[in-house]
């Protein structure tokens, strides 16, 4: 996939699903970082996530996938075709099948509702189905839950998912890099996700590296 302003092919697609846990900014920043790293990004945003985005940010994002592509491309500077968005029941999307899904998917942030649906294989919407496909195909699946405190149900589902090969990467930023801005806390988590994906970044130094 290329566009005129970007004559070399994009790097392989990564699926990013934003669900209705607090911390939508983590997911939006992740999309921005993947675009900056020249990856194609396939995006799904749940209905609850749209409500959370409207509640906790000043960002206005349309629900319709075609308009969402424009809005996210405008925000991130993505090239033509670099971002694709899929709707809740877009079962024809490539992420719905093992033959079309990319090698990595991140649910960021991940609500406990979606966490539980993924752990039990519900597949009632495209986000849940795409995660189910990632698990059955033994592809990389990273879930970024945000809830506190966790119930036994949440913890049991996280353990089950870890045993299935998924990575549970809680939205729990550290403070040892002495953050002074909210963006520093967001980048802490996004950097950890990119590390898991094996994508080079300069969001923050790794432990033991010079800043
Ligand atoms: C402003 C707001 C904040 C929320 N924060 C959380 C949260 O931090 N964690 C969580 O698991 N659910 C949270 N919820 C509840 C979920 O959005 C709700 O369970 C929803 O059904 C999740 O649906 P989804 O997984 O399809 O996005 C929040 C809801 C709203 C409106």
UniProtKB/TrEMBL annotation:
The entry's keywords: Flavoprotein, FMN, Prenyltransferase, Transferase
Residues that hold dimethylallyl phosphate according to the record: 176, 192
Top EC group: transferase
Residues annotated as domain Flavoprotein: 14-197
InterPro entries linked: Flavin_trans-like, Flavoprotein, UbiX-like
The keyword Plastid appears for this protein: no
Pfam family for this entry, one: Flavoprotein
UniProt superkingdom: Bacteria
Family: Belongs to the UbiX/PAD1 family.
Residues where FMN binds: 20-22, 46, 111-114, 146
Keyword Flavoprotein attached: yes
A molecular function (GO) term: flavin prenyltransferase activity
HAMAP family hit by this protein: ubiX_pad
Gene: ubiX
Reaction it catalyzes: dimethylallyl phosphate + FMNH2 = prenylated FMNH2 + phosphate
EC number in record: 2.5.1.129
Organism: Halomonas korlensis
Protein name: Flavin prenyltransferase UbiX
PANTHER family: FLAVIN PRENYLTRANSFERASE, FLAVIN PRENYLTRANSFERASE PAD1, MITOCHONDRIAL
Function according to Swiss-Prot or TrEMBL: Flavin prenyltransferase that catalyzes the synthesis of the prenylated FMN cofactor (prenyl-FMN) for 4-hydroxy-3-polyprenylbenzoic acid decarboxylase UbiD. The prenyltransferase is metal-independent and links a dimethylallyl moiety from dimethylallyl monophosphate (DMAP) to the flavin N5 and C6 atoms of FMN.
